[in-house]
Amino acid sequence: MRNWQGTVTPLEHRTRAASHRLLVIDDNRELADNLIDIFGSRGFSVRIAPSAREGLDAARADGFALAFVDVKLPDSSGLDLLPALRDACPLGEVVLMTGHATIDSAIAAVRGGAFHYVIKPFKVDDLIATAESALRNAELRVEREALQRRAAEAEALAHMGTLAAGLAHEIRNPLNAAGLQLHLLGRKVERLADADRTALRSRIDIVAAELKRLERLLTDFLELARPKPMAREPVDLRALLDDVAAFHEPTAQSRGIRFERKVSDVDALGDRERLKQVFHNLVVNALEASHADGAVTVSCGTDPDDPSFVYGAVRDAGRGIPGAALAQIFEPFFTTKEAGTGLGLSIVRQIAERHGGSVRVWTEEGRGTEVTVRIPARGGT
Predict the structure, then answer these.
(1) Bridging pattern class, strands 21-25 and 45-49
(2) Lowest-confidence region among 53-67, 73-87, 182-196
(3) CATH superfamily placement of domain 233-376
(4) Greatest CA span in the chain, whole angstroms?
(5) Do 359 and 372 form a contact (C-beta atoms < 8 A)?
(6) How far is the C-alpha of 336 from the C-alpha of 287, rounded, in Å?
(7) What are the φ and ψ backbone dihedral angles of 192, each rounded to 5 degrees?
(8) By C-alpha distance, which of 311, 324, 323 is closest to 279?
(9) Considering 92, 120, 163, 333, which has the largest number of Cβ atoms within 10 A of its Cβ?
(10) How many Cα atoms within 13 Å fall on the side-chain side of residue 322?
């Protein structure tokens, strides 16, 4: 199953994935076929469900941008079905249809969350106008939910920044002290007999690795909670990706993974070190997701949809991201890795957005994942 994800919430993801899905819940096949003709030619994928049960199953499985629902269904009333449809797809819109309208039923429809209430038979132009209005309303819902999420995140990060500034010094001091003592212990271990030295050296290496992981977690946390000012300078994106790939080449070779490059000469406008951090994070993720004899592909070029932006992308040929996890991958501290910090993609998103760009993730189970970062081009904005 192919999935897309960007810098959006789970609800936005559900609605964007369904942005061209029209669900028709009506047992009148002739009417349903007419709606297929009307909206199919306008780029919609139309699904027909002849009963309330089948309609609700379809809504839960695939979501919808817009649902046309008959008030009188074989196994239920469209009015009774309405709350369940709203729960199944909160950011989609529902239009109820009936041939026997009453004031009471219209009021009930509005109270139940229906966008509109249309009477059969209806004119095609009127129906199209209703659909366009409903879709505009759905887009406004998505935008409003996104703004609320961003505001909540900003408030949370502000509190995290205050906490991080107070704790960073207290945490780094014992980390540095432990690292120094471990180094001294390692020097003494080297003077022991071979058998004893080998066993102790292995344990020292484990502790050293864990200390580095704690240091990395602290650094990532500080970067997310209290980011430093961004530079704005020309960045040769091709050269940057070459540097990142060269840095990770030894690790890739040791795991039997090859690097492939599909790069063009493009210049971004931004902070070179921050962008390098972005692609280091993405390459590390790709290497961890890849299997032996697989490939990690790095690419860059001009955004085909907007030449004022360039993009850099990293793709693996791993198992892909499960659908249940996809909507959470940008959330701080969410991870599916046993030893992951859950901050990598949060930082990638933050850096991209601070550049005025965005992040998009393509994934397909069994085929892999590609993360694309859009950044303003030099001279583009």
Answers:
(1) parallel
(2) 182-196
(3) Histidine kinase-like ATPase, C-terminal domain (3.30.565.10)
(4) 93
(5) yes
(6) 15
(7) -80, 170
(8) 311
(9) 92
(10) 5
- Residue 267 CA to residue 236 CA, distance in Å, equals 5
What is the CB neighbour count within 10 angstroms for residue 44?
A: 20
With 0-12 CB in 10 A as exposed, 13-18 as middle and 19+ as buried, what is 307?
Answer: exposed
Assigned token pair, 299? 């690419």
Among candidate residues 207, 218, 221, 217, the one with its CA nearest the CA of residue 179? 207
Tokens of 306: 């907007």
pLDDT for the residue numbered 12 = 36
Q: What is the pTM of this model?
A: 0.52
Alpha helices, DSSP H only, in 89-123?
103-111
Assigned CATH for 2-122: 3.40.50.2300
Gyration radius (Cα) of the chain, Å = 27
What pLDDT is attached to residue 262? 93
Tell me if 373 sits within 8 A of 10, measured CB to CB: no
Three-state DSSP class for residue 84: helix
Among candidates 380, 55, 133, 137, which has minimal Cα distance to 235? 380
- Environment class of residue 7 by beta-carbon count within 10 Å: exposed (0-12), middle (13-18) or buried (19+)? buried
Q: What is the mean pLDDT of residues 321-333?
A: 75
Neighbour-count burial of 371, counting CB atoms closer than 10 A to its CB (0-12 exposed, 13-18 middle, 19+ buried): buried
For residue 370, give the 3-state DSSP assignment.
strand
pLDDT in tens, 90-135: 888 888 888 776 666 656 666 667 888 787 887 888 888 888 888 8
Question: In the beta sheet, which residues pair with residue 370?
Answer: 315, 362
Amino acid at 337: K
Encode pLDDT of 207-227 as tens digits. Answer: 887 777 677 667 766 666 666
Residue in 114, 98, 122, 138 with CA at minimum distance from that of residue 38: 122
Q: What mean pLDDT, rounded, does the chain reach?
A: 80
Q: Looking at residue 164, what is its pLDDT?
A: 63
Contact 267, 237 (CB under 8 A): yes
Provide the residue ranges of all domains of the chain, joining segments of one domain with +.
2-122, 151-225, 233-376
